[in-house]
Amino acid sequence: MNYQELSHQINSKSSYLCVGLDTDINKIPQQLLKEKDPIFEFNKQIIDATIDYAVAYKPNIAFYEALGIKGWESLQKTIEYLPKDVFTIADAKRGDIGNTSKMYAKAFFEQMNFDSITVAPYMGSDSVEPFLEFEDKWVILLALTSNEGGKDFQFEELKSGETLYQKVLDVSQKWGTKENLMYVVGATRSKEFQEIRKSVPDHFLLVPGVGAQGGDLEELSKYGLNENGGLLVNSSRGIIYGSSDTNFADVAGAKAKAIQEEMKGYLERVC
Ligand SMILES: O=c1ccn([C@@H]2O[C@H](COP(=O)(O)O)[C@@H](O)[C@H]2O)c(=O)[nH]1
């Protein structure tokens, strides 16, 4: 999916919601365990219930890898089940020396046909560029993460006066464009949103950390939204684990709808 198509989806659904498919076999409703593929069955019902309110889906790959071959099969089926007009994110946080990164890119872009993958910037340009060589595919580079430990390195002030995460934003803009490069900025970092938006006015930001991690949707939307949308805000546990009963999908749908309605209001302010 390209920049214009993503922007169009945000406009037509009045939503920049990304549903996180962090599907944990120990958390899904008991009655699904009798299914042949409980993880896929759970994802399928969550997707059906939330599809009208979401523009993107983000399976966190760890939850599938943890189950071995069966997990990879559930992931593949989930990706195949998702409609082509939603944006798909492999939250895999990859990145290695160039020839290895190329193999990661082939795995997620060619084998699994994801639109995008999260990549760690720490190994630098040659670890990121192989992902950027794929047409209409995206790198989502970790810039300022939502977790407490993100402060250990990302706020480090460099000799130049800029912080490490600012340097990631500045330098990486030479590697890709707004058409193939997005950034992860945690919803818990709402104080930094205004300044980050100035550094990357046109790039999309993937924002995890609303819901279970307590990020403020209104605050981050105020500074993060731009005229193309410019944001994909992820919620995983806050949507998919609203109920552990037979009504789990309905509850997920209602939670996604509530977020979409709130987002609609924020989008109207920038249009
Ligand atoms: O900075 C980051 C980067 C990635 N994540 C991932 O997003 C989801 C958040 O899940 P919630 O249940 O909505 O908290 C999860 O897959 C994380 O691994 C992040 O939280 N922060």
Descriptive account of the structure:
The mean pLDDT is 97. Strands 1-2-3-4-5-6-7-8 form an eight-stranded parallel β-barrel, surrounded by five helices. With 271 residues, it is α/β, with parallel strands linked by helices. It has a single domain (3-270), classed as TIM Barrel (Alpha-Beta Barrel). It is built from eleven helices and eight strands. The structure holds the ligand O=c1ccn([C@@H]2O[C@H](COP(=O)(O)O)[C@@H](O)[C@H]2O)c(=O)[nH]1.
Topology at a glance:
Blueprint: H1 3-13, E1 17-21, H2 38-50, E2 56-59, H3 61-65, H4 69-81, E3 87-94, H5 98-111, E4 116-119, H6 125-132, E5 138-144, H7 164-172, E6 181-185, H8 193-199, E7 205-208, H9 217-224, E8 231-235, H10 237-240, H11 248-270
Parallel strand pairs: 1-2, 1-8, 2-3, 3-4, 4-5, 5-6, 6-7, 7-8
Helix pairs in contact: 2-4, 2-11, 5-6, 9-11
The protein binds ligand LLZGTKA7.
Brief overview:
Helix content is 42%, strand content 15%.
Record keyword descriptors for this entry.
271 residues; alpha/beta; TIM Barrel; eight-stranded parallel β-barrel; 11 helices; binds ligand LLZGTKA7; decarboxylase; Aldolase_TIM; OMPdecase_type-2; RibuloseP-bd_barrel; Orotidine 5'-phosphate decarboxylase
